[in-house]
Amino acid sequence: MDTPRFIDTLARMLAPAMLAEQPPLLLQTAPRLHAAVASLALGGAERIVLDWAARSARKHIVRIAVLRDTAPEWPVPAGIELVRLHGRDIETGLAQFGAQAAAEKSAGGTPVVCCHLLSAAQRRALRSGGALTVPVLHNAASGWLEPASALCDEHLAIAVSSAAAAEYCAAGGRVPCTVVRHFPRKPRASAGARETWRARWAIPADAWLIGMVGAVKPQKAYTRALRILRELIDHGDAPGRPYLVIVGGPTGRDGTLAWNAVLAQALRLGVSGHLRLPGFVADGSQCLPAFDVFLNTSRYEGLSIATLEALAAGLPVVASRVGGQGEAGAPGLTLLAFDAPDDAWANALAAGALSAPRPPAWVAFPSERLWTLAHLAQPFAPRSGAAGRVLFITANLNAGGAQRSLVNLALELSGRLDFEIAVTGDSSSAVFSKRLTSAGIHHFRSAATRDCLDHAEALVAHITASAPSCVCFWNLDAKIKLLLVKWLGHGALKFVDVSPGDYLFEEMTATRGFQGCIAYTDAEYFHRIDRLVHKYRAAPHPLLGGKTGVIPNGVPVPDAIRTEFRSFGTNDCERPARIALCGRIAPSKFVLEAIEAMGLLWRKIPDAELHVLSTAEARDRDYALQVAAAAGTCGRIVFHGAAFDAPAALAQYDALVVLGRHQGCPNAVLEGLAAGVPVIANDSGGTRELVLDGSTGILLDAAEPAAIAAALRRVLENPALARRLSLRGRQHVSENFSMDRMRDSYLRLFC
Length: 751
Prior knowledge:
Radius of gyration: 32 Å
CATH class of the largest domain: Alpha Beta
Mean pLDDT: 92
Shape: elongated
Strand content: 15-25%
Number of domains: 4
Oligomer: single chain
CATH topology of the largest domain: Rossmann fold
Structural class: alpha/beta
Number of strands: 26
Number of helices: 25
Distance between the termini: 58 Å
CATH architecture of the largest domain: 3-Layer(aba) Sandwich
Helix content: 25-40%
CATH superfamily of the largest domain: Glycogen Phosphorylase B
């Protein structure tokens, strides 16, 4: 192979985004975030608050109001502003704290205060200072501080599990309630932690240790755990002598009663010698390496942080099937009915000892970012007016058809609609961005990274500040769509999803793991959005009812089109046939198949040329290497890069090949038809509505090399057919896929 030519070919194909000028970055300051918590007692709710604060303090100034002092307490991470009210004149202190939060709004910040374990009166005090309060339901209904009706003055509530949210709705709660499952990270164990803790607790070397972590109070049902311990001692098939350690001390109004009940039960059952009650440990997760199995016998739970930490540490866990237990699935989790027989619990613990569960999939998910989104998602009134304001959000401004169609539409809407465009990823070319700038169309990149949560945070803050009436998703990452609708879908904001077709549902299905982490499903998403716009007549979807509409792409129809057609099957043709191939250089665009088809075509039309008008993205570099190798040193395959001046640039070619999988309303096909070039395309998505086989182009059943080559010969060797396809194709676009028609359809949608 000619190495210099190979490198040149590859360079023309690859268009690395890091070398392209990107849209201007959205300028935002990290706002102060405010929360209020009853205390910093060693409980799961308090742990959630401090976990969020510690991780958010790297980017934001975090201020937390703590109503009462307790001992012991969680240690306060560095970098957090703590406002302690010391249990004195709490409502006055909260009103002042609320006023400080409210002052952030005038500076472009957020007045939201997430309220953890606060009463309705305390939240009213915060609101009297001007704050927006968001109460958090940390427990199942049996553990709530107040009835669901006490939340009636709020604009939003958060529950830590779907089960808690369902109980809230069943109890008559009328305020929208969303779910945030807080996932702890894998606990960091110090060297020798297992031996150290066991020695401290005087655990024998042959002991099989069952661990429990949590404050001693009636709902934890520790007396039940002692019965299970007795069962294991008497009949269980344990791998060693069973011992039970309960890390926690009495707390709450009935904590002392529960503690005394545990002591009495241990004496009554004769298990005191197998029981250790070390009391509170500043961070109970540090004890997990000492355990062989983890036990949770709670009567009710929201979503136990202690259970999740044990799973994150790789311990087998046996827990009661109550509340949100099990919503965060993990390989090592066994759930039993709370009232299951003691021997069933004992057998489950013994069986767990034989397992070595993998860490759960959610262990690395940054769930604290969801709490940050809760702080940023303040309610707002969308702008009024004939059409309000529209925010288009797209993945990038690459050379692809989706981006080209958006830019075409934006240029047509300019001056007719108040709108702006947000871009959430790297763009491999600056051409479209420069066109938007020249037309005075405001567009920006929402974050400098590829992290969907970075973009979601920036967009939530921007949307609440700019107050558009409609957000239109245009070829956008499904994860960002889910996050935005989850947090902004409780008000009057209109959501439109412009999708190429059925591929939208495949993309959503591919995010099922992410949906579980953010506690928001594709069914909820489709229920909330106001309109799904397909680019072609796709099959109706049961989740969408009558929300689906069709607006095909439009393209400008140039004045200059191809009018000269020759027969390239003869030997006396004065120039070679020139074939254009459009579509991103990626496996889904069948470029290798097109090159193989040229090899077959050269047997009959040996001087035909293939001109590839496209680029490859960095993610498809390996495929680009294969394409470059397949093209070899042959001068009859030429790589030009993207054709940003289509359709005018296409008029010089004798045929256009457009291949693809999951096609919507492919712009490349429309541009070829508008230029009067005979188009050959495979039947995918909406292509069949553009390429009417034998009338406006040649439609292939599949993108197979032999079929592609045969279709090319059919067009190149028959000038009469080529001329007929050219005329009818251009007429088809003019009548059905004009820019005027596309523009007016979207104006009607937004107005």
